[in-house]
Design brief:
alpha+beta, disordered N terminus, Cro/C1-type_HTH, Beta-Lactamase, 434 Repressor (Amino-terminal Domain), 2 domains, 15 helices
């Protein structure tokens, strides 16, 4: 019996190592982009060779090789900045590289269930726009009535208070109702994968998060392929085009605000006043 593609990647996806990220970005960068003459010899590997990148970053080939192979698991800020410049990393990727290369990362298992402050629940109830609070595992901790109807009206409103909470990542990849909500599903899926990728770097000792990523890789070939690319994006503001099962097509701004609570985020969805999209949200609100 042939193995599932995701199952073959299970071991890889639960490891978010410094070496793997460096290798993925080295293989992405071509010699011309890096300012290196292509030469006449045929390249046997994609992207830059290790010695080329080491020279661009001003480090020895041996040292860079130890980083990429995981023999060395941390590096100084100066080395990280040099590697980021040589690899042409964007600001989000540069910050992610700093997190991966930071020494003395926590190793104690962190499986505690996230909780929402009562004041945040009061804020959700007071908001007149769809709103949802998620943690670093993409678990839905709470939502208001409009947020529930917009994102997952097919599940119970009280589901975030249950033993198994709704999980945005699981819904994006495995729930056909939620998946159908996004007109550009691939963009949403890539951002979701990037958020989990960065969360694993910040919480390397979280067994619940590790289990989530590993199980998604087994259950979704699309997730496994996206994860293998090690995407990194700053998730703050997007325009979401949605096909809602009740109010139809709607375009909403999606703003994400980081809360000072155990790596929690508040997601807000809103439309410009006086537009058809605002009318659609008003109609949805009448269904509560």
């Amino acid at each position: 019996m042939q193995a599932q593609p995701g199952a073959a990647l299970h071991h890889e996806v639960v490891i978010n190592d410094l070496g793997g990220f460096l290798r993925s970005r080295r293989e992405r960068l071509g010699p011309v982009e890096a300012g290196i003459a292509p030469g006449h010899t045929r390249r046997r590997v994609p992207g830059l060779r290790r010695e080329e990148l080491a020279e661009l970053a001003g480090v020895s080939v041996g040292y860079y090789t130890r980083l990429e192979r995981g023999v060395s698991t941390s590096a100084s800020a100066a080395v990280i900045d040099s590697l980021a410049a040589a690899l042409r990393l964007d600001p989000a990727e540069h910050d992610h590289l700093r997190v991966l290369a930071a020494p003395h990362r926590p190793s104690r298992p962190q499986a505690r269930r996230s909780r929402v402050r009562p004041s945040v629940r009061e804020l959700l109830a007071a908001l007149t726009m769809p709103a949802v609070v998620i943690d670093h595992r993409a678990e839905v901790l709470a939502w208001n009535g409009l947020g529930h109807l917009l994102l997952a009206g097919h599940v119970a409103f009280t589901a975030p208070d249950g033993r198994v909470r709704p999980n945005i990542a699981r819904m994006v990849f495995l729930d056909p109702h939620h998946r159908a909500l996004y007109r550009d599903w691939r963009a949403k899926a890539l951002v979701t994968t990037a958020a989990l990728h960065q969360a694993v770097a910040r919480h390397p000792a979280d067994p619940v998060l590790e289990q989530l990523v590993g199980q998604l890789a087994v259950d979704s070939v699309e997730f496994a392929r996206m994860w293998a690319r090690r995407p990194v994006k700053t998730c703050s503001y997007y325009v979401r085009e949605m096909d809602h099962p009740v109010v139809g097509r709607v375009t909403l701004a999606n703003e994400t605000v980081t809360l000072p609570d155990e790596d929690q985020q508040l997601g807000l969805f809103y439309a410009q006043a006086g537009t058809a999209d605002a009318d659609a949200l008003a109609l949805l609100g009448q269904l509560r």
